[in-house]
Amino acid sequence: MQIPFTPSTRSSLGVEWELELVDLDTRQLRSGASEILEAIRPDGAGEHPKAKHELLESTVEVITGVCTTVAEARADLAETVAVVDEQAAKRNLGLMCSGTHPITDWSTQEISPSPRYHRLIEEMQWLARRLQIFGVHVHVGVRDVSKAIPIVNALTQYVPHFLALSASSPYWVGTDTGLASARSKVFEGLPTAGLPYQLAGWEQFESYMETLIATRTIQSIREVWWDIRPHPDYGTVELRICDGLSTLDEVATIAALAQCLVERLDRELDRGYTLPVPKGWVVRENKWRAARYGLDAEIIVDDKGTVAPVRRALTDLVEDLMPTARRLDCEEELAGVERILAAGASYQRQRAVAAQHDGDLTRVVDSLLAEMRDGLPA
């Protein structure tokens, strides 16, 4: 089976942001996506080009076009969010984003009308029905198919960095899970989700997909939801590991981190270097540590079992990537990592609000709505 890879402009950028629709009276998730998307649909056209359905009717996904810089991607998202927010407000709905909604029971949620999503529910049953989870996906362009799998493999080393920084799902149906990212563990329930297989190259990727399609495990390669995956149609490497981010500030920071890493790995391949392939069991353990402990995690940094605080690993990584950020004009956005470390990741901020209000999680919802409006707290 041949899978064509459409090359992209080097380090081009695209971002997808899954937004929750929240009833401003009850603070629960409420359906409204179809009405909102119909209201913003261009005259005589199909869907809005940058606002889409997701699995649940209480979700609208906003996406950028193909961007060159993080600042361009941020402005693109902000423009679409403003359009969606205007229509949401008319329906007494607010917008927010977090890996999970703190209080809403997934069993109350309506599925979007797309046949694709109803087929997913039919195939996966409870595993898919409970996917009341929200994330941010970042695409970074790759010029040549031969680079895609080596870059995916090398990026798995940074799974704990992205997950700890974005972790925003400590609560599940009104209960503190004890995790920083419950979303990442819920999503792993799907048989084709989770960490990517470390493949030898594009031919092995094609062989893997051929097996899944031939055995009717999937109908298309879009149904393989790895934490990091190549996207042949877009010609990108897509990072899907992150929890939902509640502010544009954090989205821009994650986008800058992703763009800089892919750019650096791409250049190393151009120089003739072989990219590292981390041990699978180290990657798996580090993902668990980030999901459990977030920014307090100590991650394994070599094959000898040496551990280091993920906070220090992030600080060192930012320093290492700053020359790349200068070339890509995203120094300010990459420096946002330090702002997040100072303010706390979303899971920490949510727990702090709950602690201040005797465990009242409706106040946590209010804080997430406010962050979407006002940005990352000082």
Number of strands: 13
Approximate helicity band: 40-55%
Uncertain ranges:
none
What is the CATH fold-level name? Creatine Kinase, Chain A, domain 2
Q: Please state the average pLDDT score.
A: 97
Domain count: the total is 1
CATH class: Alpha Beta
What does the model show?
It is built from 15 helices and 13 strands. It has helices at 33-39, 70-90, 115-124, 126-129, 145-155, 159-166, 182-187, 202-214, 248-270, 280-293, 310-328, 331-334, 336-343, 346-356, 361-374, and strands at residues 13-23, 51-53, 59-63, 93-96, 135-141, 171-172, 175-176, 193-194, 225-226, 228-231, 236-243, 298-300, 307-309. It has a single domain (13-371), classed as 2-Layer Sandwich (Creatine Kinase, Chain A, domain 2), CATH 3.30.590. The protein is globular, with a radius of gyration of 20 Å. The strands form four sheets. Strands 1, 2, 3, 4, 5, 10 and 11 form a seven-stranded antiparallel sheet that branches. Strands 6-7 form a two-stranded antiparallel sheet. The model has no long low-confidence stretch (mean pLDDT 97). The termini are far apart.
